[in-house]
Amino acid sequence: MIQFFHVYKSFGSENPALIDVSLTIEKGEFVFVTGPSGAGKTTLLKIIFCAERPTSGYVLVNGRNLTRIKDKELSLLRRRTGMVFQDFKLLPNRTVFENVALALEIMGAPFSVIRKRVHQTLKYLDLGGKEDYRPPQLSGGEQQRVAIARAIINSPLILLADEPTGNLDQDLTVEIMALLKRIHIRGTTVIVATHNQELLKGTRRRVVTLNKGRVA
Amino acid sequence: MRGTLLRYSMRRALANMSENRLVHLIGIGTMAIAFLIFDAFLLVFLNINYWIEEQGSSLTMSIYFTGDPDKAAVETVSKELLQYPGVTINEFISKSDAMENLKRRLGDKAGLLDGLEGNPLPASLEITLSKGKIEDFPKQLKARLEMLEAVDEVQYSHEWVEKIQAVMGAVKLIGIIFGGLLFLAALFIIINTIKLAIYSRHDEVEILKLVGATNRFVKAPFLIEGSIQGFLGGVTAIVILLLGYLVAITRIDLRIGFASFDIVFLSPQFILLLLLMSIIVGFLGSMISLSRFFRI
Ligand SMILES: Nc1ncnc2c1ncn2[C@@H]1O[C@H](COP(=O)(O)OP(=O)(O)O)[C@@H](O)[C@H]1O
Ligand SMILES: [Mg+2]
User: Ligand 1 test: best mutation among A34, A43, A49, most atoms within 8 Å of CB?
Assistant: First the structure.
């Protein structure tokens, strides 16, 4: 489903963020990408999401070569791939409902469908009743779940989560991880980037470790 | 899909305009000024053109007599005139008729004439030349008539028209250059207000792209916003021009006392055309602004 072939990524003159990364992730897998801060985890996810382009090498997602993708295809790719950003990327002056609805509005879904799906998804993420709040009025865990809601509302094939437990306490971390598991069980390919080694203890999942841009 | 996009874009455009009211009001105001100058220029230009056309279609000529002509003198000139086809004699105005006419025109200021010794106004024959005559027929006729002893001077409206027509070429050129500059100014204003709008919403633009919006979807609200701004600027200009026009014609009527200047306002077709143009300016401005922003 996702294939990297000798991917390099560098930002200007500094040390490259990714060096000769080749890997394959199968449909329906649950993969952790780990490594110390600055190892290139975020960059890896962004390349899958086509928010960054490889400097060299190439990437296939669902058989599509991401290195030469046009606007139309890019938008289709992103509708099939949900990404939960480390900083959530929610609009602070829009309500929870509006933030989540955005992902359906851009597809031209009728309002009746949008309303139903948004309410369902918010309920699924235990955010029922928070529709009219604005992100700054919510706790970190709630904002995280709003970001996840927006990422999964289109039933994407792939869910990318960047440090989803980044600044959450132990209980919320467990909660979010359980949620990601539930989404995975529905058939979604899930890739979680985290520097938190605690999360990986005793996991039976596949773990890809990055170090200074290389797969260890 | 189309309908949804349009409705969504319309809603976003209006929401953004009301959120950034001041920026938009300033933008609309400055654009209205640019359009107003343009429209006013067009109004003046069209009126001069109408006037010239009107004059050209019915060419009138006044033949002024030397002294106070007797019947025989008038007969002689009339006979001479009737040799030429296409000439109609309208009326003979004697010296005293001319004085009466002047008194009527001056109305309550007629007292000014009381101090005059005798009657300095000439008697005249008013004639009309049918259109479609050879270009220099009026000139030839004028020369021939002025050779007659009874005739002092011949004037025809075409003399003025010819002079103005010569100037109109230059006026047209200045108008095109000036209008072009105003067009660019309006475009520049739109480009900048939309640029501000994009900057103030760049988070939203980024997020829309990240959740899978096409460029078209992201751009549409800005294009609608620019078009609405252009339209409002255009409407404001027309309304101000109309008010100015109404004030001007009542003033002229009051001051001069007779409404021989027939100033015509822009026709509905012209108004529609101008509004369409202002919408196009708005649309084009946002397109340029967006193309600088979207490199993807
Ligand atoms: N937009 C960027 N511009 C410049 N350097 C960047 C950018 N994004 C990431 N980097 C650099 O690339 C390297 C990897 O970053 P990142 O992928 O964010 O690592 P991680 O998520 O594992 O902490 C770091 O050295 C970082 O400074
Ligand atoms: Mg990171």
Answer: A43
